[in-house]
Write a structure and sequence with these properties.
The complex is a heterotrimer of chains A (168), B (517) and C (423). In chain B, 25% of the residues lie in helices and 19% in strands. By secondary structure, chain B is an alpha+beta fold. Chain B has a five-stranded mixed sheet with strand order 2-1-5-3-4, with helices on one face. In chain B, strands 17-16-18-19-20 form a five-stranded parallel sheet, sandwiched between helices. In chain B, helix 2 (81-96) runs antiparallel to helix 3. The two termini of chain B are 38 Å apart. The N and C termini of chain C lie far apart (55 Å). Classes of the chains: A alpha+beta (168), B alpha+beta (517), C alpha/beta (423).
């Protein structure tokens, strides 16, 4: 686990767009306690701008009527929340157990070489970011990789070579 | 009396109060269950695991004492090898990533990790891998400086801001051994009780920028006192020390538990009032506008008072009951009007629904009990005819009375702190402040409390009672004043003023409202 | 060996859609359900012997009976779809291939426990899966199976999907509740148990997806039909996920009680060509590893695996062959549990990181034999001293590797050229 405590300012104010605003209000009716909106709101932020900034946390804390410190806690606790801008293609390689047994390391090695970045980094052109993540729940089709949320099962270096050429 | 229950601790039967958790229940009979995260004001969290105890025939057999209610017939084991090993193990886990910087840590000497290491651990470190690195010297605002590496993640500070002040500035971010206390960027500690997190912190993670590096804890004398910052009368520790070749100086105030008055906490403003005990003190006696030694100044004032045609006494709402009583007696003797006019001490709207009061005076409630008038009308009319005003510590400038509005009367000031009234005085007698004196005060809720002399200056200021006696008063000391109060003031006739209990005495509404004839 | 009870519709194209699911019997139990007394539903579930399929195996029907009676508070149902234990990937099939079976199960459970608000807690990584699930819920609302009047009956049920965001610990039921409440997923001390004081301080039942999805079959066919599968004490079927170094990894529905080695050989095709079986993780990463010798007479049910000093867990079987470096595997697993420690309790927060670093040092050739014993002691020192069992999941499995494959750890220690302690 790396230190996720350092938040970044985007430099511009944040507000939900109309679509997310509607979703926020729909969800608000589903929970008897507004704090329950914290996780969904952070997902909405990430959906809207790709990552979670200082301004956006302050926005949802005030919108929900809760402590910014609590939203900050949640944002840093759950590792899928991006606390800085990611690459256009965010590649998550599962590192655990069955994926480990079936060669996730070859895939990570290949990506490091091909993209010139280590896990946790973003390529200079901003196209790719690489992350090693814990079990993705696809052990029966290991090794598995998730790119922008989409699963790619039974991955091999050869399959990745093909795949990378399609990710512009 | 509260209900009691019997339970067995280490095979010995003890009788404890019902309805408490195991930590508090057995602490009351002198048995310590070590705990780090639990604090009676913040409730049980159960994260430190230091208070695990065995319950014989219990399910489960191992429980956190802070989360477990003491019940009749419970058999608690603290002395088994199993529990002793758990305590050692928890200490080991607490310490593996803790910096070994006690020599430069403010908390040294009053640190739970140091104390528990000596009591429950004592083992050599087995840590042979790199420690976790976190942030140092982080400004949390409100004078709180945080060291994340020293933090044991007990969450006391976080719970304080969430449960007590409900301001929620602090949180524990991240997870794993990367977890750390932090503020959200741009939203620092900003509540008026922030510095309590420094006291609550069981280790040296929360430090006060005001106190940091000024004194080692073990050099401090920790005297009991009552805060005079407002009419709440919060109980405090006055931590002071006389360094070699120096005077006795106060370094900090800390809250002292009193369930009847302030619970476990004090406000930041009150905490900082220790400074006026050290600084801005009146030091130079005056006689007829000239610097004088103390005896000469008092004698000169006595002569002036004896000659006065219309003396007028002004009393501060911060004077003790004993002082006020002596002032009243002297006034009767000298046929002087007494006024406690001090409306400027009241900062309308500044108080909250907890500890902070609008009234920044410690003993205004005594005015009503003793029958001291505090109206502007009486003050003004008495002032008009007066040729000598003897002011006992009342900063009239707060109440909009400037020196020109005092007219032609000559001014005498008997007090501890510099202000414009003292500046205008022809006769000035510096006296001991409350931290150097003893006395009793009544707080806003009618709780009568006493305080004893904490600080002993190299060259002590005289106390106000002795000055009053030298001016012709009849009371020798605090004891004499209390006896006299008991004899003459209706409200006190049934009370033993010489033995006010440590937690104070809640006066009834009729006692507080009583006015002597 | 395979059976099709829960997985009956898994291979039907488009069965995630209401229309096709209905053609194959979805929601057929509802008329029967609403004709029954709620308590009678609970009785059927109790009689079926269904045990919680999330890993702990607690009897589902019995759990429901722990709800306080006559309380003036809402009862909540939380469906645990966090599925984050490494080697576990079974619930995902239900979510994607037959979500209406899950929704029907939720209706059955809500009716039995008198709950009107169900939350499905789904792990954040299931991005495409959550879309399929939400679409099915939307269809169910549109068709009147959810909402104010479920299937025309005077009973309201609202189902809300709550997404996690990358935290294994949220599979622990009280951490899951904290997460729904908008907090970090930090387990609560028990008691109070969730059935008494759960979500928003109200009585709450938390059941695994597979447990809930088993309800339509049980209600439709009766307890005996369910008990016809499996063993006496471990009745029913289970969606087993078989992965690792095996010929045909995948999800297989099997009755409980089958011999583990036979399942690996006959269902999953055995180890790969020319390899030898070295170990079996029987029920998810936290369950202690079995050697082939130990596994000889082990069967896939709660009792047999407990007798073999391991656990049935979540039915995630991992096959390890003779190419596996058990030290590196142990390091991989400790890394997982370290990474997922919520950071609340001292022993877990500080201890798992310490153990991980010791293992890393050992693998780097800087360890010593004493480190192996230190690791074993730390397992003891951490285990069962914490609010939840995350750390125990780590220590129970690590201990099994340290003891059963100690020579491999010693071989790493021997690589340390300087036998002196590393400072």
């Amino acid at each position: 686990m790396s230190n996720r405590a350092e938040l970044i300012e985007s430099g511009k104010p944040f507000a939900f767009d109309a679509e997310r605003d509607a979703e926020f209000e729909r969800l608000a009716k589903r929970y008897p306690n507004r704090d329950s909106l914290i996780l969904p709101s952070l997902w909405l932020i990430q959906d809207q701008q790709g990552w979670i900034s200082v301004e956006s946390i302050a926005y949802v804390a005030d919108r929900i009527g809760t402590f910014a410190s609590q939203v900050y806690e949640v944002a840093t606790f759950y590792t899928m929340y991006h606390l800085r801008p990611m690459g256009k293609y965010h590649i998550c390689v599962c590192r655990t157990l069955s994926c480990y047994l079936l060669g996730k390391q070859q895939i990570v090695d290949y990506l490091q070489q091909e993209l010139g970045i280590r896990p946790g980094q973003i390529s200079e052109d901003g196209r790719f970011s690489l992350e090693e993540v814990e079990c993705l729940g696809h052990c029966g089709s290991a090794p598995v990789v998730q790119i922008n949320g989409e699963f790619h099962e039974n991955m091999t270096v050869d399959k990745f070579k093909e795949l990378l050429s399609t990710l512009k | 009396m509260a209900d009691t229950i019997k339970l067995s601790v280490n095979g010995v039967e003890v009788e404890v109060q019902a309805g408490k958790n195991l930590v508090d229940a057995v602490a009351a009979v002198g048995i310590e269950i070590p705990h780090i995260c639990y604090h009676p004001a913040l409730g049980a969290d159960g994260n430190c695991r230091m208070c695990l105890v065995e319950i014989e025939d219990g399910r489960p057999p191992l429980v956190p004492a802070c989360k477990t209610r003491a019940v009749e017939g419970m058999k608690v084991r603290l002395d088994s090898e199993k529990i002793k090993k758990i305590q050692r193990d928890i200490m080991e886990f607490e310490l593996i990533n803790h910096p070994i910087d006690c020599p430069i840590c403010d908390q040294a000497g009053e640190c739970i990790l140091q104390d528990y290491y000596m009591k429950y651990d004592g083992a050599q470190s087995r840590m042979r891998v790199p420690q976790v690195v976190k942030g140092k010297k982080i400004d949390f605002g409100a004078g709180v400086v945080h060291d994340q590496e020293r933090c044991v993640l007990c969450a006391r500070c976080v719970r304080f801001t969430r449960l007590i002040t409900k301001t929620g500035e602090l949180g524990i971010v991240n997870r794993t051994d990367q977890a750390r206390v932090n503020i959200f960027p741009g939203r620092p500690l900003s509540n008026r009780y922030s510095l309590n997190v420094v006291d609550l912190c069981p280790v040296g993670a929360m430090t006060s920028s005001d106190f940091r590096f000024k004194q080692r804890a073990w050099f401090l004398t920790k005297s009991k006192g009552i805060c005079h910052g407002c009419s709440k009368g919060c109980n405090i520790f006055i931590d002071h020390n006389r360094e070699k070749y120096q005077d006795d100086i106060i370094y900090r105030y800390r809250p002292r538990h009193n369930e009847q008055v302030n619970g476990y906490f004090i406000c930041d403003a009150g905490r900082m009032t220790y400074k006026q005990e050290n600084e801005k003190r009146l030091r130079t006696p005056l006689a007829s506008g000239q610097q004088a030694d103390l005896e000469s100044a008092i004698n000169a004032l006595k002569r002036r008072l004896d000659q006065a045609a219309n003396p007028f006494f002004v009393v501060s709402p911060n004077c003790s009951l004993e002082q006020m009583h002596a002032i009243q007696q002297l006034a009767a003797q000298k046929k002087a009007t007494v006024s406690g006019f001090s409306e400027g001490y009241i900062q309308e709207g500044d108080g909250d629904d907890w500890l902070i009061q609008d009234d920044k005076a410690a003993n205004r409630a005594a005015f009503a009990v003793l029958g001291i008038d505090e109206t502007k009308e009486v003050f003004n009319s008495a002032l008009k005819g007066a040729d000598l005003v003897v002011n006992f510590g009342n900063d009239l400038s707060l109440s909009g009375v400037n020196n020109t509005s005092l007219g032609t009367a000559e001014m005498a000031f008997i007090g501890s702190y510099a202000n414009s009234c003292a500046d205008a005085a022809a006769y000035l007698v510096p006296v001991a402040s409350y931290s150097e004196d003893s006395g009793s005060i009544i707080n806003v809720d009618g709780v009568l409390q006493r305080y004893e002399t904490a600080v002993k200056k190299n060259v002590p200021f005289p106390n106000m009672l002795s000055v009053i006696r030298q001016l012709g008063g009849g009371l020798d000391d605090v004891q004499a004043a209390r006896t006299s109060l008991g004899n003459t003031v209706e409200a006190f006739k049934k009370l033993d003023l010489q033995n006010i209990p440590a937690q104070g005495l809640a006066l009834t509404a009729s006692e507080v409202g009583n006015v002597t004839a | 060996m395979e059976v099709k009870v829960l997985s009956a519709k898994f291979d039907i194209e488009g069965a995630n859609k209401l229309e096709i699911a209905k053609e194959h019997g979805a929601y057929a139990t509802l008329d029967k359900l609403f004709a029954m007394e709620p308590a009678a539903v609970t009785e059927v579930v109790k009689a079926s012997g269904l045990r919680g399929r999330g890993g702990a195996g607690f009897p589902t029907g019995l759990k429901w009976t722990f709800l306080p009676k006559g309380l003036d508070k809402p009862v909540y149902l939380a469906v645990n779809s966090d599925e984050s234990e490494p080697a576990t990937f079974k619930d995902r099939y239900i979510l994607v291939r037959d979500p209406h079976m899950l929704i029907e199960g939720i209706i059955i459970c809500c009716y039995a426990i008198n709950s009107h608000d169900a939350y499905i807690y789904i792990r954040g990584e299931y991005t495409s899966q959550v879309k399929v699930l939400q679409a099915a819920i939307d269809e169910a609302y549109a068709a009147g199976y959810l909402g104010e009047k479920v299937a025309g009956h005077d009973f309201r049920i609202d189902v809300t999907v709550h997404r996690g965001a990358g935290a294994y610990i949220c599979g622990e039921e009280t951490a899951l509740l904290e997460s729904i409440e908008g907090k970090k997923g930090q387990p609560r001390s028990k008691p109070p148990f969730p059935a008494i004081e759960g979500l928003y301080g109200c009585p709450t039942i938390i059941n695994n997806v597979q447990s809930i999805a088993s309800l339509p079959f049980i209600l439709a066919n009766g307890a005996d039909a369910y008990k016809a599968f499996g063993t006496e004490k471990s009745p029913g079927t289970h969606l087993f996920g078989i992965s690792g170094l095996v010929q045909k990894p995948g999800m297989y529905e099997l009755p409980l009680g089958l011999p583990v080695l036979e399942v690996i050989d006959k269902v999953a095709g055995g180890v790969r060509e020319g390899r030898k079986l070295k170990g079996i993780i029987p029920g998810g990463s936290s369950t202690p590893v079995l050697t082939p010798e130990e596994a000889q007479d082990a069967t896939l049910d709660y009792e047999s695996l407990a007798a073999h000093k391991t656990m049935f867990g979540s039915g995630g079987i991992v096959v390890l062959d003779d190419t596996v470096d058990m030290v590196k595997l142990a390091e991989n697993l400790v890394h997982f549990y370290y990474h997922e420690s919520c950071g609340q309790c001292t022993p877990c927060r500080e201890g798992l990181g310490w153990m991980l670093k010791i293992l890393e040092q050992l693998i780097a050739g800087k360890g010593k034999v004493a480190d192996i014993d230190l690791l074993l002691e730390l397992c003891d020192n951490i285990e069962m001293k914490t609010v939840c069992v995350l750390s125990a999941a780590c220590t129970m499995s690590l201990r099994s590797y340290l003891i059963k494959f100690r020579s491999e750890f010693e071989a790493y220690a021997a690589k340390n050229a300087s036998a002196e302690p590393v400072m």
